[in-house]
Amino acid sequence: MSEHVEWSEPEAAVVPASSAVTPADAADAARLVAFGLQPKLQPARDQEYAELLRRYREDPAFARLADAVAAGLGLVVLEVSPRAGMAVTAAEDSVFAVRMGDYARRASADSGDRFLHGLAHLAVAAMAFPRPEDLADDGYIGRVSVHGVDAFVRQACRRLEERADEQGANTDPATDAPGLEAAWRIWARRSATGATKDARRLAGSTTGIVGKAVAFLTDSGFLQRTGDDAGGTYRTTARYQLQVRDMAGSAAMAELLELGIVPVTDGTASLLPAEDTDDLDLVADAGLPFHS
Amino acid sequence: MGPAADEGLARRLRALACTAPLHDLDVRKANLAGEYSVYGMAEVALAAIDLVTLNMDFDTGADHDQIVARLIPRIAAQAPRRPVAEHERVARWVLENLINVGSVDRGFRAVYGTFAPDGSYVRRDYDFKLLEEVPGYGGSVYLRTTDEAVNVLVGALDTDVTSAQIAAEVKLEVLISRGRLADAQLAAEQARYRTVQYSETLRRALDATRRNVRAVDWLQAVPDMIAEALDHVADRYRHENAILTNIRKARDESEDPEHKRRAAELVDIVKDCIRRHTQLQSRLLEAGPLFRAEQDRQAFATPMTTSGIDLYGHLVAPVLPLPVEQALRVTDAFFARGTGLRTPVSVRVGDLVDILLTPPLEREHLGAEMPEPDLIATPDDSRFSEEQLAAAMELLDLPADAPRRLSGLLDDARRQDPELPYLVALLAVHAASPPVGTAHRQGEEKLLFSVDDGVELDDSEFGGADLIVGTATLRLEHR
User: Fold this and answer.
1) CB nearest to B325's CB, from A122, A179, A247
2) Which domain holds residue B434?
3) Which residues of chain A are within 8 Å of residue B122 when distances are taken between CB atoms?
4) Which domain of life is it from (chain A) (predicted)?
């Protein structure tokens, strides 16, 4: 049901010789894009929005006009459908793009914080879509919780720490080269939570950073809050799936490949349950029923 | 120097680093506003770490305020003439410094040097925490001592600093050697801890099943674990009910208040154990149906073309071991394209001028005017009027040495007012068992009483005993 846009098509083709585009059509196309800029708006709740979506799907000339309006504004059309609405996202360097410096002030000065915020977003997506099938299945709704995301990243860090210990490696980073510190150590040494004077979540703690990420994604219309358990529970929307699948995942993969790292998996899901929490009191003598 | 010796040196340097924050407290107390040199800060800090270790529940941690409250007696002993507020300030200062609230990681860092395999000298950062804050139920924050703190500061210096296993053992040993836990209590707590562990394992297995049914071994491992856990629950349930019966007896029969208190505590712990066992059992029973439902959903669904990206396997797992410089490029790329869009806020100069020139809204200091409440007089539906009560009290104001029969009082009352005998009878019956203790405490001098000596009341309106009504004088004895 997804209709991906052919970008190779020149924009001049928008005006076919047979039917002239009227200013009213252009206004309608722009209004549809404007609806798409309100990601929390649901097509089912707005009659005009639903009507414009129907027109996009039935009238190719109108569709091309709307695509052109979006492209001119610096937007990428991910999908136009009744479930996701006019799913548009910001192209690189567009005025609509989110910049890390605006997102978190500390992140621009401190590369450690910058990494933590980025990893939080990646971890939320990994937790929301644990299997490759889940990312591909349009009907799949993922569920995440703030504490769950933190626990699962901490667990992955703990495994790396154990592996380093087994190999007898000293993972303490060299003092004069902080950039060479292993990434997992940054998350592991940041505290999970902290008491504050006004009983709010400590912004610099890892649960604070994950909490900020899910709150931001909720504002983007990517997540919906479902409850307050485990630091806040959320479910994904169709837009988030599209965004992760078509934009973020492949971009991050491309970057990883450029670093010369080719992750090899056999196509089965590799997200395994935590074998041991960061709860240090649980002595590891209980037989744990998981594949390693 | 060989690499093995160097490793040992590195280990001891790390152990030494863990004590630095404590020495640091005594150095920095001079910088506090006020005269704090009388306090032994390192001593308070060690006491705080001991307290947190002893009060750590197996699944949560120690409560912040509770630790402060328990530290205060020791601090007060160091400087008895200082105000309590200052003692509390010292306790909080020490606790905050052990957490190291000022740093973004809420931890400490020490620098030490080692020789790399190629013979070059490398300075390294060692990051550690002494007290850490962990999330509890409902958003609360608890304190826990870290393994480093337990090993170095509670145990001894010559241990492997990061071993969780040793930390757990030292902790239990300390608990026992200091006589803080009776044997029964220890056994019960260990069983509770085992139950918590089973619940945790089960919860994680179910969570993982919901995500990917193949990640969990439902053929053998989980059914084995469930069977084992059910056995554990049955076993503990029998045991703890037996313990409960025994300690309840001990609690009720013991004369020593200390023993009584201990036993009462133990009853609470065992009750909590039983509650947790029951909870675990109900979860165990739900596990099978959940697995079958997830299996239907995941394994028997029609296979579809996958997107090819396994977010964890292809992205998270390879990124974590990378140096942060490189990992940053991947997470930045994900962030830039994974956060969606924000519509920029644009301001027109015309609007800005209007906004800036608008006078601020005057707020009424007292707030909005309250509407006058519309009061409706409720009809006085008392059975007797104030005058009638005064008349009855006068009638019953008898001299202390001359009690009277109720029948006589009723006749007197009837002569004044036909309603009055009812009130007198009511007051007389009410005086049958007067609250002497209360009246005495409140400093009353006399008290109305009535006694039944077996004589029947012969009256046109009332029946029952012809009470003797009198006034007793209460004498206050001053010692």
Assistant:
1) A179
2) 386-473
3) 174
4) Bacteria
Domain count, chain A: 2
Residue A275 lies in a domain: no
Among A32, A58, A90, where does a domain finish? A90
What are the C-alpha distances in Å from B47 to residues A110, B91, B141, B153? 36, 10, 20, 10
Of all helices (H) and strands (E), which one includes residue A76? strand A75-81
Q: Which residue has the tokens 């001891």?
A: B12
How many residues make up chain B in this entry?
A: 479
- Reported as a pLDDT band with limits 50, 70 and 90, residue B181 is very low
Q: What is the mean pLDDT of residues B135-151?
A: 75
- Cross-chain CB nearest to B323 (options A89, A123, A181): A181
Q: Kindly state whether residue B277 falls inside one of the protein's structural domains.
A: yes
> Quick one: what percent of chain B has pLDDT higher than 70?
79
Q: What is the mean pLDDT of chain B?
A: 77
Regarding whether A108 and A24 lie in a shared domain, the answer is: no
In a domain, A1, yes or no: no
Give yes or no for residue A277 having a pLDDT over 80: no
Which pLDDT tens digit goes with each residue over B418-444?
888 888 888 888 888 777 777 777 777
Q: Return the top range by mean pLDDT from A161-175, B113-127, B155-169, B180-194.
A: B113-127
Residues B213 and B139 grouped into a single domain: no
Å from A20 to nearest chain B CA?
A: 31
User: How much is the pLDDT for A273?
Assistant: 47
Contact assignment for B125 to A90 by CB distance below 8 Å: no
Q: 3-state DSSP call for residue B112?
A: strand
Within-domain flag for A272: no
Q: Which residue has the tokens 């020789």?
A: B115
Q: Which residues lie closer than 8 Å to A36 by C-beta, 6 or more apart?
A: A70, A75, A77, A85, A86, A87, A88
Instruction: ipTM value, please give it.
Output: 0.79
